Amino acid sequence: MEAADYEVLSVREQLFHERVRECIISTLLFATLYILCHIALTHFKKPAEFTTADDEDATVNKIALELCTFTLAVALGAVLLLPFSIISNEVLLSLPRNYYIQWLNGSLIHGLWNLVFLFSNLSLIFLMPFAYFFTESEGFAGSKKGVLARVYETVVMLMLLTLLVLGMVWVASAIVDNNKASRESLYDFWEYYLPYLYSCISFLGVLLLLVCTPLGLARMFSVTGKLLVKPRLLEDLEEQLHCSAFEEAALTCRIYNPTSCWLPLDMELLHRQVLALQTQRVLLEKRRKASAWQRNLGYPLAMLCLLVLTGLSVLTVAIHILELLIDEAAMPRGMQGASLGQVSFSKLGSFGAVVQVVLIFYLMVSSVVGFYSSPLFWGLRPRWHDTAMTQIIGNCVCLLVLSSALPVFSRTLGLTRLDLLGDFGRFNWLGNFYIVFLYNAAFAGLTTLCLVKTFTAAVRAELIRAFAYLIHPFCGLVVLSLRTEPIPRF
Q1: Which of 147, 187, 219, 312 is most buried per CB count within 10 Å?
Q2: Separation CA 208–CA 367 (nearest Å)
């Protein structure tokens, strides 16, 4: 064998080892996400649906739960795409020739983006509709009952749904783009139809993020305030403990003396209310025993961090709007010709990259908080050990739509200059100046409006109540009773 053959063989071996290494890393990452999502869904599912006397229903619910776990793992992977790519680029810039990070390369990052895109299509278009129809199916009339009969009915329903969606997308393409070539391209199912359909779903997800994220940014302050212990000036735990004890005593008296009331009593409802009050009283006792550092330092620092992150988000969007007006090169096309490990995606270097990652995670958490705080999706919130299977499916679909739109959302707002890799960069509407500019302006306007309306109102109410308590405790109770706005709950 000649020397050239040895060189060719060596190159083939290197490509083979790189491919095997990428497959192993991708499998390990997805397996980790799958385990975490399975633990989370196990704590939210309703145990009664998996321990029923009917083994058939229990088997169907277990299969549907595994499909939901897969979908939620894909959603979590979509959230980690941009942060992982940004951090990997900075690591390659800092340690370009380190032996221990040779596995971290552009091929691995591109492969992860393509896998997330493929699995997102698979989950949204096939797995989640299959899981829903599977849990609702009973088998065709006259057929033998069993899991297999449910599978047949689900497959038929899924095929009919696919034909319906295919026809709707084809008609929409004919209306929007009246071009014979574009319509004929939809006949290519894998290369054109699925990416086109996914771009439509991603566009809806970006619009949903436009509504939920500003609402979530405003709600983060109140949610954090409920999780942390406030200073004595802003919270009177003794009063809350006394009120909780009085309510619990009154309900207990009604339970043990049911004849004292003329109206019929729902004893089960009263018992649930007593248990809820007891849980609330235990939490208040723990908060009262909190240390002075936790009370006087934790709450101000948390609020300061939220204020800084929210201000940075609004400032970043405002700067991007100015860049769009000044230079059209600020459009979300990414860094042309740049690959991982060549140049930083932030003008501030590694520090700016860390800020970008923090802002992306913060906006994603805010969008989830805003999503579950909106009246339209209020009933979809999962409950601890009390979430039905169909509700779990709906939550997984919504979270996947939000998370898969996060890279497009972040790139549109100018949070990063990283290119949308793989099929994520094939969305044609990203190159439309008017859509991008109006989206940035709408996000900045809605965020400012929500913050001014919610944050300043909360600050005014807290300051008035604090000053009233300083004057006299009775004045504080009067001010609290005169509040016309309902106390927000999360």
Answers
A1: 219
A2: 9
Alpha helices in 137-236 (DSSP H): 147-176, 180-185, 194-227
Residue 194 has φ and ψ, to the nearest 5°, of -65, -45
The per-residue pLDDT for range 434-471, each reduced to its tens digit, is: 888 888 888 888 888 887 777 666 566 666 665 655 55
Nearest to 129 by CA among 450, 458, 394: 394
Query: What distance in Å separates the CA atoms of residue 115 and residue 26, rounded to the nearest whole number?
Result: 9
**Cβ-Cβ contacts under 8 Å for 483 (sequence gap 6 or more):** 461
232: nearest Cα among 476, 481, 452: 476
Q: Tell me the C-alpha distance between 36 and 13, whole Å.
A: 35
HSE-CB for 212 with a 13 A CA cutoff: 31
- At residue 382, what are phi and psi to the nearest 5 degrees? -75, 145
pLDDT at residue 148, rounded to an integer:
84
CA distance 488 to 207: 25
Q: Determine the Cα–Cα distance for residues 86 and 16; give it in Å rounded to an integer.
A: 27
pTM over 0.90: no
Tokens 């908060």 appear where? Answer: 287
Q: For residue 339, give the DSSP letter.
A: -
- Read off the amino acid at residue 131: A
Q: Please tell me the predicted confidence (pLDDT) of residue 460.
A: 62
CA–CA separation, 246 and 240 (whole Å): 10
Distance CA 158, CA 130 (A): 6
pLDDT at residue 265 greater than cutoff 70: no
Who has greater pLDDT, 141 or 264? 141
Q: How confident is the model at residue 91 (pLDDT cuts 50, 70, 90)?
A: confident
pLDDT category, 295, cuts 50, 70, 90?
A: low
